[in-house]
Amino acid sequence: MEPKQKNKPNALVISLVALVALMIVIYFIFVLFFPTVFDSMNTGELQPVKPE
């Protein structure tokens, strides 16, 4: 009996998943240590239109 061959994902897929996970971790580190940078970001909230 031969041992079954395991289905391994491509190296590119592993790299992309690791990169996304690393970016999420870096984002949370930035939010922890530099909260003022993210306070001024536009979140897409609706604001009333000011008449001129």
TrEMBL record:
Keywords: Membrane, Transmembrane, Transmembrane helix. The keyword Transmembrane applies. The chain crosses the membrane at residues 12-34. It comes from the Bacteria. This is Energy transducer TonB. It comes from Chryseobacterium caseinilyticum.
